[in-house]
Specification:
By secondary structure, the chain is mainly α. Helices cover 51% and strands 1% of the residues. The longest helix is centred in the N-terminal third of the chain and has 21 residues. The radius of gyration is 22 Å and the shape is globular.
Length: 271
């Protein structure tokens, strides 16, 4: 029985690989998944979120959250794809597959911990970003507070909130989690560093837009202008355009605590 089940799984995986590598499977965003594929992914998301959000402790949102701040975060990072009461999605959000859902139903039905987890961690292969490296923890909980209020706002009430929240901004993190190689690899991915550079120890595209960052500590200079030290590397990661006007590397809004971890990783990754 067990051998037969394993054989069946292997045959299925092999058949899937053949279809994928033959080019027969369409990756076009204009072609919907099969119905069963869509339902499996939808249910898989719910089960995954329920499992990983299980240990999140929900604080007193009346104490730590601010709906106006939460809307400022939502307006800056979420509204383009998900829309809001009386506000249509941007073309970016309308052209994705799967299409980003209106959050009115999810916000009403999902527990606060589940909303926090998805907002912080994102959803792989869906276009939903992770925001925990761009929004502070209090900002994330404020976003959850706004989401829980949103389904019950009329179009006019939402317009009033939009007007009253104009002075608010979405707070960025000011600290970083304890250093670990795995967490720092997530930071590199979240700032899209691996889209331009090969980074030792990481799985990602084999891209050569920028120089490889492997064996980094063997280099004498950073961009040919700074001695290659930990502190100089932090400066470079935070504000490359200020250090070299000729570099193609853009400022990525990396906060210094994150840059400290990234510099430590590059300086020690060959140890």
């Amino acid at each position: 029985m067990t051998i037969g089940a394993v054989a069946l799984v292997l045959i299925g995986a092999g058949a899937g690989a053949v279809i994928l590598l033959s080019g027969a499977y369409s990756t076009a965003a204009t072609k919907q998944h099969f119905g069963i594929t869509y339902r499996i992914l939808e249910q898989g998301l719910r089960f995954s979120v329920a499992r990983y959000a299980d240990k999140i402790v929900v604080p007193d949102l009346d104490r730590v959250a601010n709906v106006k701040v939460g809307y400022a975060c939502y307006r800056q990072y979420c509204q383009q794809c998900h829309g809001a009461p009386g506000v249509a999605r941007d073309p970016l959000g309308r052209g994705q597959l799967p299409s980003p859902s209106s959050l009115s139903e999810s916000a009403r039905d999902w527990p606060e911990a589940h909303l926090f987890y998805v907002t912080a961690k994102g959803v792989r292969m869906s276009g939903m970003p992770a925001w925990e490296f761009r929004i502070s923890t209090d900002g994330l909980w404020s976003t959850v507070a706004y989401l829980k209020a949103m389904p019950f706002l009329t179009k006019e009430e939402h317009r009033k909130l939009d007007t009253s929240a104009t002075a608010e901004s979405c707070p960025a993190p000011t600290t970083a989690p304890s250093y670990s190689r795995e967490t720092t690899q997530v930071m590199f991915r979240q700032y899209a560093c691996d889209n331009c550079h090969i980074i030792g120890g990481m799985v990602g595209p084999k891209t050569h837009i920028g120089p490889s960052l492997e064996k980094w500590r063997e280099r004498r200079y950073i961009a040919g202008v700074l001695p290659n030290t930990h502190d100089n590397l932090v400066r470079w990661i935070v504000a490359p355009q200020e250090i070299s006007a000729h570099t193609m590397m853009p400022d990525l809004d990396v906060i210094e605590p994150h840059a400290q971890h990234m510099a430590r990783y590059l300086m020690t990754m060959d140890e």
